[in-house]
């Protein structure tokens, strides 16, 4: 799935204690409800796109893979970039995958590395279709895909996505006030509108 980026908002005076809890509950509720609604509306269409081409031949899959203008990373390179996927580099964890901050040893570039859990993909074709779809998506409200890793060592299958790194923190950080971050109501509305535009873009 695509990941939404959040630009660093202008610093605003912190809300009073009496208003902070109300703003937090209402703000989280609004954004969560909007996100759930948009996901339900477009989930079917997005998943259909990911599964397109499953019946293609192996030769066709290899040809499509070569056409992708993405960097193919070695698993060892991503291990080094995250210090063997240590908790120190963990940015977020979910039911589908964990996301790590990675520093590429060769050029010192910082990236976000999304490592799915073992049962997240039903087939190699599903992963390749997702890479193909994400590589074609370009939008200011969506984090760009930099590359991927596809390796099988023994019984372990690694299917990893590498995204551009967004240094200003996650939307959750701003919604919860983590790290001294805060949002005005105008900023929250703008984020909701931006998320809606990004989801609408994925529709097509």
Describe the overall structure.
This protein is α+β, with helices and mostly antiparallel strands. It has one domain: Phosphorylase Kinase, domain 1. The protein contains six helices and six strands. A six-stranded mixed β-sheet has the order 1-5-6-4-3-2, with helices on both faces. Strand 2 and strand 3 (97-103) form a beta hairpin. The longest helix has 35 residues, at 17-51. The protein starts with 16 loop residues before the first helix and ends with a helix. Its EC number is 2.7.11.1. GO terms for molecular function: ATP binding; protein serine/threonine kinase activity. This is non-specific serine/threonine protein kinase. ATP binds at residue 114. Keywords: ATP-binding, Cell membrane, Kinase, Membrane, Nucleotide-binding, Serine/threonine-protein kinase, Transferase, Transmembrane, Transmembrane helix.
Features:
204 residues; alpha+beta; Phosphorylase Kinase, domain 1; 6-stranded mixed sheet; 6 helices; 6 strands; 44% helix
SSE pattern: HHEHEEEHEEHH
CATH topology: Phosphorylase Kinase, domain 1
Alpha carbon gap, first and last residue: 15 Å
Number of domains: 1
The shape, in one word, is globular
């Amino acid at each position: 799935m695509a990941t939404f980026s959040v630009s660093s908002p202008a610093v605003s005076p912190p809300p009073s204690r009496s208003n902070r809890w109300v703003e937090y509950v209402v703000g989280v509720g609004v954004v969560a409800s909007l996100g759930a609604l948009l996901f339900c509306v477009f989930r079917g269409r997005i998943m259909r796109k990911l599964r397109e081409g499953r019946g293609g031949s192996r030769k066709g899959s290899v040809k499509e893979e070569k056409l992708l203008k993405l960097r193919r990373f070695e698993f060892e390179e991503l291990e080094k970039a995250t210090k063997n996927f240590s908790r120190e580099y963990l940015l977020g964890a979910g039911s589908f995958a964990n996301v790590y901050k990675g520093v590429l040893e060769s050029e010192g570039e910082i990236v976000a590395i999304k490592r799915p859990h073992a049962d997240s993909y039903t087939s190699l074709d599903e992963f390749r279709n997702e890479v193909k779809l994400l590589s074609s998506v370009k939008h200011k409200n969506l984090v760009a895909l930099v590359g991927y890793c596809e390796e099988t060592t023994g019984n372990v299958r690694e299917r990893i996505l590498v995204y551009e790194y967004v240094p200003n923190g996650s939307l959750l950080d701003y919604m919860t006030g983590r790290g001294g971050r805060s949002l005005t109501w105008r900023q929250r509305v703008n984020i909701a509108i931006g998320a809606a535009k990004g989801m609408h873009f994925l529709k097509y």
